[in-house]
Amino acid sequence: MTIYRKRILITGAAGMLGQAVAVEFQRRGDEVLPLTRRELDITDFAAVRSALWHFRPHVVVNCAAYTNVDGAEGDYRQALLVNGLGPRHLALACREMDADLVHISTDYIFDGSNPVPYGIFDPPDPINAYGRSKLWGEQSVAAAGGRYYIVRTSWLFGPGGKNFVDTILRTGREKGEARVVNDQRGCPTCTVDLARALADLAATGCYGTYHVTNSGSTTWYDFAAASLAMAGFKVRLSPCTTAEFPRPAKRPACSMLDPFPLKETIGYLLPPWEDALQRYLSRVT
């Protein structure tokens, strides 16, 4: 019996999500080509074409991104290069090579004024530079005319990278107290669970846009409280408003994502974020 192994090229492979995606595809027996930012600059079209012609992947998973939300306000051009132009380069090269593209996007393409979860066809209206750059990336991928999965996700945490859970635990350990905003609501997502869903989605051939997060929603304050409680930390945690904690970039107040039709496509929804958080903390604490 012949086992068909796919060749998977991952951009941004040194990042938190890129590492999880590489582990997941390797676990499935695929040939994985994890390329870091130094090994492949997606803003360089000639380099992207050369890499795809050299490796000839069946699937490209784009985990490369400019993720500094506040930094994008002052360096919008760089955010556009990485989050907008880079995905276009990948999409055009994938079309040329007849490869599928899995592109990671964000809840921040929405303005956050909707009190219910956003569906995949709800109109985007980003309120910060980062969100605008990610929206351009989505539009560039769709306009390229190839085969793609655009996957919007949110509030990532997991091993191998900087994330909110690690930050709040460190703050609690070092200071014994923390203030966290309690008027922004979203869907925390573990990179391990997301990577599994990405691999399953890439095997379906059901191209299009998807929302993939762990089930359920919470505020940053409640997320912090759950993290500290599960880790057994006794920390004085205080809620505050977004207005009391000003940042250079505006944040959407409510950026929950409706997963339909994820279950109808891959057969399941991701587990609750509390379950994912407990599993993550069992590894790092």
Please tell me about this protein's structure.
This protein has 285 residues and is an alpha/beta fold. It has 10 helices and 12 strands. A 6-stranded parallel beta sheet has the order 2-1-3-4-5-10, with helices on both faces. Strand 4 (100-106), helix 5 and strand 5 form a beta-alpha-beta unit. The mean pLDDT is 96.
Runs in which pLDDT lies below 50 for 5 or more consecutive residues are none
Q: Measured on Cα atoms, how large is the radius of gyration?
A: 19 Å
- Widest sheet: strand ordering: 2-1-3-4-5-10
Q: Indicate the overall shape.
A: globular
Helix and strand succession?
Answer: EHEHEHHEHEEHEEEHEEHEHH
Text of the CATH class of the domain at 7-161 and 189-216 and 257-270 = Alpha Beta
Instruction: Tell me the major beta sheet.
Output: 6 strands, parallel
| Strand percent estimate | 15-25%
Distance between the termini: 43 Å
Please summarize what this structure is.
The chain is of the alpha/beta class and 285 residues long. Helices cover 41% and strands 17% of the residues. The protein contains ten helices and twelve strands.
Name the features.
alpha/beta; Rossmann fold; six-stranded parallel beta sheet; about 40% helix; dTDP-4-dehydrorhamnose reductase; EC 1.1.1.133; NAD(P)-bd_dom_sf
Topology (elements, then pairings):
Blueprint lengths: L6 E5 L4 H12 L3 E5 L9 H11 L3 E4 L8 H4 L1 H22 L2 E7 L22 H15 L4 E6 L2 E2 L6 H12 L1 E5 L3 E2 L2 E2 H12 L5 E4 L6 E2 H12 L4 E5 L21 H5 L6 H12 L1
Parallel strand pairs: 1-2, 1-3, 3-4, 4-5, 5-10, 6-9, 7-12
Antiparallel strand pairs: 8-11
Helix pairs in contact: 1-7, 2-4, 4-5, 6-8, 8-10
